Amino acid sequence: MSSSPTRTPGHSHFLSLPDLAARSAGGAVLWANDDVFAEKENLIKPGPAEHRPATFGHKGQVYDGWETRRRRGATADSHDSVIVRLGVPGIIRGVVVDTAWFTGNYPPEVAVEAAFVDGYPTAQELAEKVEWTTIVARHPVNGDTRNPCAVDSPKRWTHVRLCIYPDGGVARLRVHGEGLLDPRFTELPLDLAALDNGGRITGCSNMFYSSPNNLLLPGAARTMGEGWETSRRRDSGNDWVQVRLAGQGVLTAAELDTSYFIGNAPGSARLQGRDGDGEWFDLLPQTQLQPDTRHRFLVDSDRAVTDARLDIYPDGGMARLRLFGRLTPEGLRRVNERWDAAA
């Protein structure tokens, strides 16, 4: 049968709030202990789950959701789990565990935990070292149903962990809440690298799979193909891309977005700047990156730059590069000159 919403009294108030876990909001599935039958990444797809009966792959019926193998010898506490990073830190008001199309293979019970973690921990660190807080206690759910659960917590969270008892399939996980602005980023100015602000690519080591121009496009990438990706290096070097900024400016923050690059994200990156033909200097030292993550870094430098260079180690792909800063008086003067000259 088709899935329809369950609107339990007292639960429906949060459904109008945005889904902070959705892929379109910048969410990502970072880890699952098992997804042998259906991929964990399906959990946060923005649309409803689809189903085509009698569509079989090598591992069985193809499901648009997350499905684990059948546990053998399970105890009362045996469970599978998956970790989702929210697109933005926020206060969670409710979750929906949607078991659409899972009828004989849905989990009888679920629980949801949350954590606030600064920075970009690895999946292993999240699974083994982070302290998790229960925000939805273990309770029964129905198959082929949107199961809503209100959350009564005033705290801010960055990650959620869905636990299913003992195993089974979940089509979608929705995490409704209110996003919070990190006060450290309240002074973000213009994106001086953006194509629509006049930024442009001036050099690149490799663009085997896709153009580096994609890095500067507006909006979020919707697929891996909408970013920049290099071929696999077989030497000791690294790939890089160079950007001419909209004008001379002082950078205050950088965003390095590896969204959709999961098995082919760079291991680390370094950001440098220079003014005109001057020497390159570090804006961001070589820093570890995580797959499928929108990284935001403060830039601690008051030196003016006209160009930036992003080195990735050793190779891989990136969805977007944002370089936030303010034009210097000289930079603004030249922007005005170019504008008037083109009249």
Topology of helices and strands:
Elements: E1 28-32, E2 56-57, E3 60-61, E4 66-67, E5 80-98, E6 109-115, H1 123-128, E7 133-140, E8 146-150, E9 156-165, E10 169-170, E11 172-179, E12 190-191, E13 200-204, E14 228-229, E15 239-257, E16 268-274, E17 281-288, E18 294-298, E19 305-313, E20 317-318, E21 320-327, H2 329-341
Antiparallel strand pairs: 1-5, 2-3, 4-10, 5-8, 5-9, 5-11, 6-7, 6-9, 12-21, 13-15, 14-20, 15-18, 15-19, 15-21, 16-17, 16-19
Question: Could you explain how this protein is built, in words?
Answer:
The protein is mostly beta strands. It has two domains: 12-179, Sandwich (Jelly Rolls), CATH 2.60.120; 185-337, Galactose-binding domain-like (Jelly Rolls), CATH 2.60.120. 6% of the residues lie in helices and 40% in strands. The strands form five sheets. Strands 12, 13, 15, 16, 17, 18, 19 and 21 form an eight-stranded antiparallel beta sheet that branches. It is elongated, with a radius of gyration of 23 Å. Mean pLDDT is 89; it is low at 1-11.
The helix content, as a percent range, equals under 10%
Which class do the helix and strand fractions yield? mainly beta
Number of DSSP helices?
2
- The fourth-level CATH homologous superfamily of the largest domain is Galactose-binding domain-like
Biggest β-sheet, characterized? 8 strands, antiparallel
- What is the mean pLDDT? 89
Uncertain segments are 1-11
Distance between the termini: 62 Å
Order of helices and strands: EEEEEEHEEEEEEEEEEEEEEEH
Number of domains: 2
CATH topology description of the largest domain: Jelly Rolls
Question: Which range does the strand content fall in?
Answer: 35-45%
CATH class designation of the largest domain: Mainly Beta
Rg: 23 Å
CATH architecture of the largest domain: Sandwich
Count every beta strand, where a strand is a DSSP E run of 2 or more residues.
21
Overall shape: it is elongated
